[in-house]
Prior knowledge:
One of its GO terms (biological process) is intracellular protein transport. It is found in: Cytoplasm, Cytosol. Keywords: Cytoplasm, Exocytosis, Transport. There is one protein chain. The protein is mostly helical. Helix 15 (432-452) runs antiparallel to helix 17 and helix 15 (432-452) packs parallel to helix 18 (522-548). The model is unreliable at 1-17, 254-281, 283-292 and 774-787 (pLDDT under 50). Helix content is 73%, strand content 0%. It has helices at residues 2-15, 20-34, 40-49, 52-76, 78-90, 92-159, 162-176, 183-253, 296-308, 311-329, 338-362, 369-393, 397-415, 422-430, 432-452, 464-470, 494-513, 522-548, 552-579, 584-589, 597-619, 638-654, 660-683, 692-711, 718-726, 729-738, 749-755, 761-770, 776-779, 791-806, and strands at residues 460-461, 487-488.
Amino acid sequence: MLSAKVRRKIAPSNGETDNSADKQEQLLLSATICNGEDLGPFVRKAFASGKPETLLHNLRHFARSKESEIEEVCKAHYQDFILAVDDLRSLLSDVDSLKSSLSDSNSKLQSVAGPLLASLDSYLEAQTVSHNVNLALSLIFSCIKLSGLCSRSNYHLSRGNFYMALKCVDSIETEFLDKTPSSTLKRMLEKKIPEIRSHIERNVSKEFGDWLVEIRVVSRNLGQLAIGQASAARQREEDLRIKQRQAEEQSRLSLRDCVYALQEEEEDGLSGVMGDDGKDGYGNGGGNGLLGFDLTPLYRAYHIHQTLGLEDRFKQYYFENRKLQLTSDFQVSSMTPFLESHQTFFAQIAGFFIVEDQILRTGGDLISRMEVENLWETAVSKMCSVLEDQFSRMQTANHLLLIKDYVSLLGVTLRRYGYPVDALLDVLSKHRDKYHELLLSDCRTQIAEALAADKFEQMLMKKEYEYSMNVLSFQLQTSDIVPAFPYVAPFSTTVPDCCRIVRSFIEDSVSFMSHGGQLEFFDVVKKYLDRLLSEVLDEALLKLINASVHGVSQAMQVAANMAVLERACDFFFRHAAQLSGIPLRMAERGRRQFPLNNARDAAEEMLSGLLKQKVDGFMTLLENVNWMADEPTQSGNEYVNEVMIYLETLVSTAQQILPVPVLKRVMQDVLSHISEMIVGALLGDSVKRFNVNAIMGIDVDIRLLESFADNQAALLSDGDANQFKTALAEARQLINLLLSNHPENFLNPVIRERSYNTLDYRKVMTVSEKLRDPSDRLFGTFGSRAARQNPKKKSLDTLIKRLKDAS
């Protein structure tokens, strides 16, 4: 022990060689162990630093430091341990005394118990006699219980409680039949028990047969109720979406602050259709008083057959009968149009499978899930066949939509019960194209009727509700300010009529595409909307423009209508996106060009053509121009004055209904036509020759037209007014060339591109040859005929010669 002490004292001396950090860590570890604290941080630190040996070394060091303390404690308690051993040795004598006392007590007990054993033998003999008496009594009581069970069985039979009667019969058969002491009573029981069971089986089978007849009517009513509730739930969802769209629209337009409380009503479901109350202990899936939907007869028959041991036979009988009922439900009457009978047809099938779902969930093993799935597959196949056949015969879009909506409601209803309806939805999707073709045909007829009724007059609205119905509902307004009434719209009645037709098309298309299993169908709706606008409406407008527009006022009205329809098309695509549940930003991202481009261009072309015809009437006054005038005119020729009066009147009228871009394009076309007429007059055979004075007069005419274009800056922007002037560019550049002192500059490519870029060199050559004026005013002042030639005349001759050589 002394050597051990020496070794323990040496261990700390080895620690003195460690650095100060190790000593500090040892001290912290020792303090932590002494205080009873957690050593987790030291362990984590050791493993984190990758030096667990250091921690182990410190722990061993601490243990060695505590060994000496343990030895001191042992020494302090050594004497106490010796004293305890001495005390135990002193108890041995007391234990020996106790053992002797117990032996004496046992001897006394044996001597006293002898008489008692004799009494026990007498008691056992009396017990044997009592057992024989009790056996006799039990046989008597058994006969009494058997008689009671027979009486109770008769009572339950008379009350129709067949299950209780069977339980009594089973008790008699299992508990008393073999133990009955009376042979007569036993023979009676063996005869009556099968008769009772046969009687009960006949009665419950009759009740089950009556239930099979009744459940067909109940199934139809149940299916109609379930589909009606699905329709009501869908309508609530639609109402919520409408309110949400209204809130979003009000927020977008910032008309006013609107707060909508969109509260979804609790879905009623079919909780009231299938009650839980039953009788005779058959309460699972019991009846409802309103529809008489009661499964008690079925469950009682099933339970009785289970009790009779005929469970499999009853399940087979039930399945075959229900399968026959379903087959009869598939029959479609040829005497009644399917449009009138389709609701009854589908409601009957829906009710059938709602009942089967209830029986599957609450009827135990009466029918298996596999059997229900097989019935459903048969039903889906038949319904798909019927739909294919009926859809192929339909030629009215509305009829097809009505049936599609009911079938989709059927799908929603039965999907809640776990039935797959994808095959039905696939049939609906398959006839998507046919439905839209029929819908396009209907819209084509409606649009043709609406256009035929148009009187090409601005629409008058006397009341605010008319403005809301015809303008605001299609977002045709150009300002958020409601105008004063009566209000004369810039469009005719054709516009709101066509907008209503297109909006109805969108809503019908979305109605067909929604609830059909396809979540994102905006692209499909947009495709058919494009077809309606570009094929149906555009073609109808083209036909109207080509066949019915004969005057400037009619053409102007049609052009104004086209501008409004362009805004309406924006609304159509936004409306389709909203109904399809697509954010407007995504719809805007996929926008295409104006689908009525052809009709718009035709309307503007028709208007321009009619205006050109009017202008042509005034331009005939060009024949009155004096092409060899002695002096240039200062106020313009007669034709330009007439044209100016007409154009100013036209602009003041057109700006009331035509949008600025349309007016700009039309007026630019008209001015370009006037420019072409002036150039054409100079090129024409009717003008053989002209002088500079006549050209100066034409220059004044063009200046008047350019002044007219400048005056439109109040209506148009400065850039648009400059575009008006560019429409006169050909006539202006030709006159500038003829009045130039150096017409030969036309041959310079740089100057030609800058100042004469609209002129054709053949036209320049033809017109230049007609400019033959011998007066000094044309080519300058000559001293005599022998004087040198005028430089301008020389330049013009050079130009003509060079152009001839180039041609």
